Amino acid sequence: MRPLPRRAATAAVGAGAALLGYQGMLFGESLVARRAIGMTDDRPPSADGVYGDDLGGRPIRCLVLGDSAAVGYGMTTADATPPAMIGIGLAHVMDAPVDVKSLAVVGAQTNDLREQIDLGLEHEPDVAVIVIGTNDVTHQVPSYVSSRLLGSSVRRLVAADCEVVVGTCPDLGTVRPIPQPLRFVARRRSRALARRQTMAVVAAGGRAVSLGDLLGPVFDEKYDVMFGLDRFHPSETGYANMVSVLVPSMAAALREHSREGAAGTSSRDLLRLDEAAQHAGRHAGTEVTRDGRWATALRRRRAS
Fold first, then answer.
1. Fewest CB within 10 angstroms: 20, 186, 253, 288, which?
2. Residues in a beta bridge with 166
3. Which of 86, 85, 80 has the alpha carbon at shortest distance from 43?
């Protein structure tokens, strides 16, 4: 083999050094961001219980899984957390009591869903909602690994006759304590993960709701209102906005399940799964579900 010319070898070494330097800079900025954001293991008060217990009928059993966004990190009262808001909202929409069980954990990654589901199946859930992905991005878990694990989790729940709605990875580009260029990288990776999550969830028989593309612009525009004191996790208003786009999909899943897969609304468009995932990425508030060998894209609600 002929030796590389000195100029080419020097350029290769220089490029490698530049890449290492860039990665080192990103790592340093991530440490700065973590110090600026802060983190504790504190959980808000448990929101487990029956909501709408004055309504008739068998309670809908609802399982809440995922990370701090599903827990309601930063809230000091149970009613201000997503599990409680989901229970209240779903009971109102379905006109039935809702029995909520939350097993979401602050700091959870997608590979932690297995343990959460092991415990959650004892609840015999009718519907499960999952919000996951942020910690996979911050811990640099490859998106193909995270999405594969998520698909496996959704299949387990579907096999247990449980409807599944997944709020895909939020847009981390809206988190201002993360400095540039790390914030740009975080935005790109979180959006890429959300697309892979959408495809994995739908292929496994669940419904995916784009939180990043839907909530990102709203959170960025109304930053002081939507984020909590740590400037990383949502405020009560931010959590409420997130829940408001998950509950309609949960209700639709339950209604279609009770009709044994009755046909959906005429506003749906049949697409290939990859096309539907791309469509969801371009159009805020799009829910993607499976329709036979195809996928459907339906915009139920726009955040405000």
1. 20
2. 130, 208
3. 80
Active site residue 139: no
Annotate 117-149 with b (16+ C-beta within 10 A) or e (fewer). Answer: beebbebebbbbbbbbbbbbbbeebebeebbeb
Q: What is the pTM of this model?
A: 0.76
Query: Which CATH code of 3.40.50.1110, 3.40.50.20, 3.40.50.300, 3.40.190.10 fits the domain covering 49-299?
Result: 3.40.50.1110
**Residue of 230, 257, 269, 283 marked catalytic:** 230
pLDDT in tens, 35-53: 444 455 567 889 999 999 9
- Per the annotation, the verdict on 126 as an active-site residue is no
For 7-24, the DSSP string reads HHHHHHHHHHHHHHHHHH
Q: Where are the domains of the chain?
A: 49-299
Catalytic residue selected from 30, 68, 143, 146: 68
Is 235 designated active site? no
Q: Helix or strand or coil: residue 125?
A: coil
**Which of 145, 110, 106 lies closest to 130, judged by CA?**
110
